[in-house]
User: Fold this.
Amino acid sequence: MPELNLTSAPAHLRHGSNVGQPLTRRDGVLKVTGQATYAADNHPPGMLFAVIAVAGIAHGRVTSLDVAAAKRHPGVVDVMTPDHKPQLAIDPEIKTNPFVFRMEVLQSNEVRYANQPIAVVIADTLEAATEGAVLLAPRYETLPALVGLDAGASFVPPVVGVGNPTENHRGDVEAGLASAEKQIDATYETPPQYHNAMEPHAIVAHWDGDNLQIDMPTQGLMLSLARVAELFGIAHDKIHIRSPFLGGGFGSKGLMAGPPVLGVMAAKLVGKPVKLVLRREQMYGPVGHRAPTRQRLRLGADGEGRLTALDHHARTVSSTFDDFYEPAADASHTLYAAPAIRTSHDAVRVNTGTPLFMRAPGEATGSIALESAIDEMAWACGMDPLAFRLKNYAEVEPVSGKPFSSKALRACYDQGAARIGWAKRPLQPRQMRDDAGLLVGWGMGTATFPALMFQAEARAAIRRDGSGVMEIGAHDMGQGAWTALAQIAADAVGLDIDRVTFKAGTSDLPDAGIAGGSAHTATAGAAIHSAGAAVIAKLADLATGDERSPLFGAGNAGVIARDGRLLRRDDESRGESYAEILARAGVAEVEARGTGAPNPAAMEEYAMHAHGAVFAEVKVDPELGQVRVSRMVGAFAAGRIVNPRMVQSQLFGGMIWGMSFALHEEAITDRRSGRIMNANLGEYHIPVNADVPPLDVITVEEHDPHVNALGIKGVGEIGITGSAGAVANAVWHATGVRVRKFPIRIEELLTQR
Amino acid sequence: MKRFDYVRPANVTEAVAAAARPGAVYLAAGTNLLDLMKGNISRPDRLVDFTHLEGLDAIERLADGSVRIGALVSNADLAHDADFARSYPAVAEALLSGASAQLRNVATVGGNLLQRTRCAYFYDTASRCNKREAGTGCDAREGENRTHAVFGWSESCIATNPSDFCVPLLALDAIVEIEGRNGRREIALEALHRLPGDTPERDTALEPGDLIVAVRLPPAARGFAGHARYLKVRERTSYAFAVVSAAAALRIDNGRIAEARLALGGVAAKPWRARAAEDVLKGVAPTADAFQEAAWRALTDAKPSGDNAFKIELARRIVVRALTLAAAGTPARLPALPASPFASTSGAIHA
Ligand SMILES: Cc1cc2nc3c(=O)[nH]c(=O)nc-3n(C[C@H](O)[C@H](O)[C@H](O)COP(=O)(O)OP(=O)(O)OC[C@H]3O[C@@H](n4cnc5c(N)ncnc54)[C@H](O)[C@@H]3O)c2cc1C
Ligand code: SF4
Assistant:
């Protein structure tokens, strides 16, 4: 294949006719007309309903279950318990790889956290199964529950997040603090939060002999498939998972959790298809959450407002039986150019389901604390918060010293500040009022998220009729993958998007990697891009090697693929259609595969991050303390924007989440029982429409030649970072009250009159 | 779900008979009841659906100047009845500050009056709750209780009544018409809800089979139309229960308060009338000082039941604000964000 280099921009492909267009969701009509089939919409013939019974205690043992009473209930078919269940092929406690988390699938009567599954009732109807679960009337031997950030002795975990070092430092922090003219020493707390995807976790499992059909929302088809295969001891090719649509995942549907495994076990036990859907309150336990943190930030600055040291310590929790540590302090690695930076973590174990990745894991929690502390330091230095951030702008990644692959943060600051009118902001807090007498405050935060890449593969084909096919087991969680990836696919094969059959969302397609880490478009996109390049190269070979083709001999000059035709690069008037090439060659289709993967050399050389600047205006009732965000502007630089409309929605969603983080979200945990007391969307507050102000998103132009072939950085998570701190800082600016415990509560703002 | 019988009586008499049987409950729109059943908090044996019965869904202006609201009138229909909203603006404002548009469209007047507490421990069947299961204990007492009662609570129960609607109704001396086994009777709304004492399992004064057929506002209630507001502080702009709320209504003659009405929500197991505060306002000019004084009086007997002392200070401030807003006069149009501290913010376009 002459002159085709599949890892950088292939000469014959040109992104732009589809990529970059603000297409509306291609699955939009299906969704609004109710035709999009979510997992729980499947009803194979003979299907039964499974309902899990969950633990009412957070720690102890189930001593009895009234299985007989449950079975007597009309419609109940069977009750799966630790004593009555299909055998698994391996012990689910064994961590076969770092992406395997322990799950509760009735292997013992031990209770490790509240809402842990302790039995599964299978019945003809949902109602019968639900009542069966109640009739089990579990009894327990209750042990004291470990609850909260001070539950026990702390320890330093071996790693945080996904293999990040627990501690990191550069320079001498203590010396930096000692020499500082201004110091800040502040402690911030963030609560446990739950993903609360609109669609609850659901599975319809159907065994047909050895074959297993699964309908289940997943952000990681192949990881899930591999986990099911090892747990049930069956070959990968016996399992078929369909996950065409997810009603949100946010990290909670990334890895196989216990409840869907219970669904597969239940189907095996009764020999019939089984549907198992979690109730909202059952999502507060077995499917992950964002761990609470207590973060201490110590900052030093010299007389000019230059940081001399930044020390960020985060305390978090993990479960008593597994390890995931919210890497909150890592948020301080990349943003501010302190000569001395130290980040560290410790943890305690509590009776909780294992915390997991939740949209911007570590970045979100760390960001609200860091951005608050930076704001506090700017105030201590008597500086405008933006001026302070600019003064400490990191030209290279502070903690590693590496140059950035690209960083348009300055432009983000400029454009965002201009849009909100930042120059008019008084330095002092509690200076602004609106016509109605409400306090008005403006705050800002810097947004950042790493530009990650995972591994993916795609298969492309050009068919006899000149149309294209792109296949990849990618995941649409609502973010718009059906649209954005199809746009990349269309450009990759040089066709209009309507001429490409784009297949995604099932496990029989090439592995698209996990839809997480804001890396899905980049990773799957890179695979699609190279598969497209490879198939076009094959097509080009057919033409350029055939003397009957107008492209004969163009091998050296090269060809261009455009609108279903290959054209000579040196003379675009000479070319022919894909259909003509295939017809002449007498082949039904050409196909090829391509992969996407991180580039270790580039990663070695560059720090790769998306950046942004978020500005918020809040209004606070001066006497009553109720807060409302009245404006938000976010300017983000995230490399190439594949679909501006989808990207804007992702950033809106992130900014709303950030505001939610600052003002609303908290899982209220009973300090004695360890039970979550607001496990429903009535009382676990997230913003409603009336809370969401006019949002303004600016996508700042950024070309990054290093992150990946397409220059995509990802936008899924960055919107939360910066935003949470911006809102918190705006509340301070409005009121003069610095609240360090999130979410900010009314009572905290009642201190002043 | 537990299996239950579902009956549709032909008339009110049959309904009362059916509902008087042990284990029977009325089903109105079910927005509270069905949630409680799905959560296994209520386990009735029979639902008596009376929503098809005639004569329960009218808003009638009576000859004496009162208004009679049928128990099945929806929260939305009542709030959007132009004449009703003009005459009883604080009631309309309270209704529209509650729940969501979808819920208000179906939720009924009777159901709103009888909605159960939102105490998290009441909803959590794994917790002990005297209200849910008499004599088991109260896990809220030492638990997560920052939103619990500051008035009228007992060691057995510190829950609050969550209704917004009831607060201005109480301020306006609403009367509840009840059809029971012994025929028709009426009680003051103030006597409908009970304080917990030693029997928190009983929310109200209703007897088995009692059907609320209507709520009446007496003739005097109209007299406050020019100066009546509801104010509700909550943890998001809409779709949240009150942390604390207040209904304030004034009759102002010649620059003096001829009569004041004040009730608080979210502070006790029942909507809470602040008569002492009303008394200090009688005959005085509507000044900031007078309102401060009234606020102090209103909260004199308040006592935290847990991590909720802030509610007392908040309630004082809400009283002052609600009175101030009422004195300023009922706005010509109901604010786009009803009862919200942000009601007057320009640009508010939805609730
Ligand atoms: C998410 C959510 C948020 C909410 N937010 C608010 C809020 O902010 N403010 C607020 O005030 N309310 C709020 N509500 C409560 C809502 O107002 C009530 O659920 C509703 O008013 C109940 O009316 P219903 O007709 O559905 O009653 P149902 O649920 O049918 O009945 C409630 C109870 O009343 C009994 N009952 C009903 N009608 C009669 C009658 N005529 N005679 C005797 N007994 C009767 C029933 O037996 C049952 O016990 C909220 C509810 C939800 C679900
Ligand atoms: S406060 Fe009342 S409702 Fe809440 S747990 Fe205690 S007894 Fe039950």
